[in-house]
Amino acid sequence: MAQTKPVELPDWLELPALELPAPLAGFGKPIPHFEVQFFVRMLFSALVDADFVETERFYSPDAPRGWAGSLNDLRGALGNHLSRFGPPEGAVNQLRGEVLEGAGHAAAERPGLFSLTVPTGGGKTLSSLRFALDHVQQHGLRRVIYVVPYTSIIEQTADVFRAALDDADAVLEHHSAFDFQDMEDETEAERIKLAAQNWDRPVVVTTAVQFFESLFANRTSKCRKLHNIACSVIVLDEAQSLPIPFLRPCLAAIKELTRGYGCSAVLCTATQPAIYKEDGLKAPEALLRGETREIAPDPSRLYDHLKRVEVVKLGRLTNAELAQRVRGRSALVIVNNKRQARALYDDLRGDGVFHLTTNMTASHRATVLGEVRRRLQERPVLLIATALVEAGVDLDFPEVWRAVAGIDSITQAAGRCNRNGKLERGQVFVFKPEEGYPPPRELQRNAEIACRIMAEYADPLSPDAVNAYFRALYWSSSADLDSRRIMGRIGESGNQLEYPFADIAADFSLIEDYNKPLILGSGPWGMDEDAQRLLSHSTHAGAIAHALQRYTVGVSPKILGDLIQIKAASAVRQDEFGEQFVVLDNVRLYDNEAGFSPEDPEYLGFLEI
Q1: N or C: at which end does the chain have fewer Cβ atoms within 10 angstroms?
Q2: Structure pTM?
């Protein structure tokens, strides 16, 4: 701004009177810095996307861009899909039907902020989709953006939507692991790749990382889609997982999208976080309950009627004691780290015992989950897992054993217990693991607060207990709700409006993942011939990363260095960012049938190097 110079216009040129754009109209002093910098990003998005699209039309007029259907057709298809279920049978299904009807009625409300508070297993996914499509249709909005917390569940959610809408082309699945090259139809692959650039689809399923980091990005590739978020219904699935260190900027972005850009945002969860001013959240970005409309009919009654489990609070259990208690039972055991999951699996391995962690590739995890679901219909199954099974994984065990964690995590774990109400009550056993297996460092405070809540409340999953948990969590972490000073730096930009866009984009990283990719070179879950050929000959590192995602696990830099030193792994190439792709040959992950021992070279004992 300081370097600008006035331009003298010719006498014959008359410009229309300057008017503030709608998102910035009505503000007085002081300067609304967050709103201004947000508008700059939106303007940048519209300009660069228009430039790319027009250039594309000039050079590639036949590029397969766009979608030929109508939102009315999607709403009709969803109605047909829901009608196939027939009249709901059983208490659980009847309540799911009530939630679904409530979503249809709430869609008539004016756009703005909504919440959908339904216990796990109460049908939130399809109910939120019905609300979103009805709301889009009744208020002339443009699209639905469904934001899930984890990449591990995004494919499942997208598949549910494609089946419900009977139009695969209408649903765009956009996340880091999506592989366009895996699609047999090259034209369709190119069409979806183009749509992912600017979210040019009526239904977008993405991750919280992709969504929020884009809203604070500065790169063209991430910003192109921002203007297409305007006039959308944004469903934030598992809203309680909003990252505490970035809570203030995330809430500010949600409020601004609903205030200035015609969006409706739905906080969809079984455990509404205490992010309201009335809950005592002192941050300026705290939401107001009076401005948030609840979609579900009487959430407290839903909780009482959908209560399918009881929580049994245990003391500390050693691995040997825990193994003795669950041996031979049909149960889900969830622990806080992969080392403990592996140790328990080693002790319990046998027929009907399964293991699930992120040390397994995506394809391996999907195979194990399919086998677990199949066997649950016939005979006892014991599944040892980490928290990756707690969100969006449709499992139904008669009992769940959960190492102590945050109340939100325990609630999610309880959602895998007696999910379909076949028992009068399922049991969720909460225990303290033996020394040496703590929760991840960033979740230790969550577990400590949960222990206090469980001591104070007979039912730690009740709405009152959940609210108390989140209040304690946010109050105790108030200094960290903007840990990178995103809001602080925006507010300090002064009258020159010199916002540090690049610095903010660099610092707004929801996941600080220091793991390195380790590609499995062979074995049942390693690279196939096509993947090996791509790794050897492709010149595009991004395409390689996408294609090899299904064969990859993340390991720490130390473990990676140790593996390279003992020649168990080797660097095969570098991408433009300097990260090495490394292949570990002749190994397999946990094979539930083979029963490898730690001494076996095909056993991933390297994880304890």
Answers
A1: N
A2: 0.82
